[in-house]
């Protein structure tokens, strides 16, 4: 069976380094591996509207931001189809049919939905669209017959929900849909990069993100004021590396070769961690190294973004073409789904013959 990727992001803000290590970097590697027959990268504007219904302007403005972030990280429109979710009306249609295969209590158990409801203070007034977005996400994935969904850990419940829908659909209506698998980052630190303030997650509203599009100065400022180990007061004090965001970022971004260039006192991250744990290594030195590591990673992305920014209409054209191509794929799946469900009345000669025979006999 051919290998197909689908993954995506909500356009509610610029993408940050958490997105990069959690999924974006991997997508580009997979794209360039040549192992996949088709790759679809979705800007999930319809999903973004499920909790931003009153704020369509925000979603609209961030579509180009996310597209710029994608392209500057190395997603290549020749190899990956970049699409806008709302342009593919087949997805809404699929969602409506999948809704019949999912119970309300199953939606209630989704841990990502539960925590998002808390974060948004939705407890007493949950929009139905928001509540059911795991079903629409199953439509996103299955419409393209995706086998592989590279995504962060928080998307795991969505993948489980999708697998259940696929099983249920195939067992009720016959083998039609393809069961997808999530592809998580292989490095623990990349599963969920904490915010610069040490909070569990980077979030725009907490102001604890380093964006891919931040300037060199912004990155440096954010790194130098990062939260570290609160018990490491003096350089000579023994420090903790576990749960220390500076070291988690180094786990996610640094490579051994970078020590030779930017911090030759150590040959690898473990040596630096050992020194910090023993005592005698100050936060400033570690942060300066992290800054160099991040600048090395982000400089080419920033430079590429500056090039893409020169021709914004060309980017809308890429998105339009990608969406058209994606729509054709989704339409094929929708037609298979409708015939499996036997709601393809007008294409079904047998149905028309059988019904007319029934009435002819009665006459
Ligand atoms: N839920 C994802 C996010 O919050 C976006 C998304 C929508 C997605 N549809 C998807 C991710 C399908 C993977 C597969 O960013």
User: What portion of residues is helical?
Assistant: 55-70%
How many angstroms does the end-to-end distance come to?
Answer: 51 Å
The biggest beta sheet reads: 3 strands, parallel
Instruction: Report the uncertain regions.
Output: none
Q: Order of strands across the widest beta sheet?
A: 1-2-3
**Tally of helical segments:** 17
Structural class: mainly alpha
- As a whole number of angstroms, the C-alpha radius of gyration is 24 Å
H/E topology pattern: EHEHHEHHHHHEHEHHHHHHHH
Mean pLDDT: 94
Task: Characterize the overall form.
Answer: elongated
SS elements, strand count: 5
Q: What ligands does this structure carry?
A: tryptophan
What percentage of amino acids are in beta strands?
A: 5-15%
Q: Which features characterize this protein?
A:
single chain; 3-stranded parallel sheet; 56% helix; binds tryptophan; mainly alpha; 363 residues
Task: Please outline what is shown here.
56% of the residues lie in helices and 6% in strands.
Topology:
Blueprint: E1 4-9, H1 17-33, E2 38-43, H2 45-49, H3 56-73, E3 81-84, H4 89-98, H5 104-108, H6 111-119, H7 128-131, H8 133-143, E4 148-150, H9 156-173, E5 181-183, H10 188-191, H11 216-224, H12 245-253, H13 256-262, H14 269-278, H15 283-308, H16 312-340, H17 349-362
Parallel strand pairs: 1-2, 2-3, 4-5
Helix pairs in contact: 3-15, 4-8, 4-16, 8-9, 11-15, 12-15
The protein binds tryptophan (TRP).
């Amino acid at each position: 069976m051919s290998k197909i990727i689908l993954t995506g992001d909500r356009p509610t803000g610029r993408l940050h380094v958490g997105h990069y290590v959690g999924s974006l970097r991997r997508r580009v590697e997979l794209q360039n591996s040549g192992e996949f027959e088709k790759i679809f990268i979705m800007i999930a504007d319809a999903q973004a509207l499920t909790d931003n219904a009153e704020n369509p302007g925000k979603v609209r403005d961030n579509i180009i931001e996310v597209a710029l972030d994608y392209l500057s990280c190395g997603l290549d429109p020749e190899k990956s189809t970049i699409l806008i979710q709302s342009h593919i009306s087949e997805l809404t249609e699929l969602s409506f049919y999948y809704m019949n295969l999912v119970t309300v209590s199953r939606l209630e158990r989704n841990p990502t939905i539960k925590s998002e409801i808390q974060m948004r203070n939705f407890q007493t007034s949950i929009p139905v669209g928001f509540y059911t977005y795991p079903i629409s996400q199953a439509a996103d994935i299955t419409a393209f017959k995706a086998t592989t969904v590279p995504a962060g850990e928080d998307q795991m419940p969505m993948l489980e929900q999708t697998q259940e829908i696929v099983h249920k659909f195939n067992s009720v209506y016959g083998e039609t849909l393809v069961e997808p698998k999530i592809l998580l980052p292989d490095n623990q630190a990349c599963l969920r990069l904490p915010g610069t303030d040490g909070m569990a997650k980077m979030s725009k509203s907490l102001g604890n993100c380093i964006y891919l599009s931040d300037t060199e100065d912004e990155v440096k400022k954010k790194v130098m004021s990062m939260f570290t180990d609160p018990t490491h007061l003096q350089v000579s004090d023994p420090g903790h590396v576990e749960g220390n965001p500076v070291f988690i970022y180094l786990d996610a971004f640094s490579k051994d070769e970078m020590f030779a260039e930017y911090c030759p006192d150590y040959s690898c991250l473990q040596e630096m961690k050992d020194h910090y744990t023993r005592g005698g290594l100050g936060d400033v030195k570690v942060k300066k190294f992290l800054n160099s590591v991040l600048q090395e990673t982000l400089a080419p992305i920033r430079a590429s973004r500056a090039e893409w920014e020169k021709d914004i209409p060309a980017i809308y054209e890429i998105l339009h073409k990608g969406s058209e191509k994606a729509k054709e794929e989704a339409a094929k799946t929708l037609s298979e789904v409708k015939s499996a469900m036997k709601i393809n009345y007008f294409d079904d000669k047998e149905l028309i013959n059988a019904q007319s025979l029934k009435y002819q006999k009665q006459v």
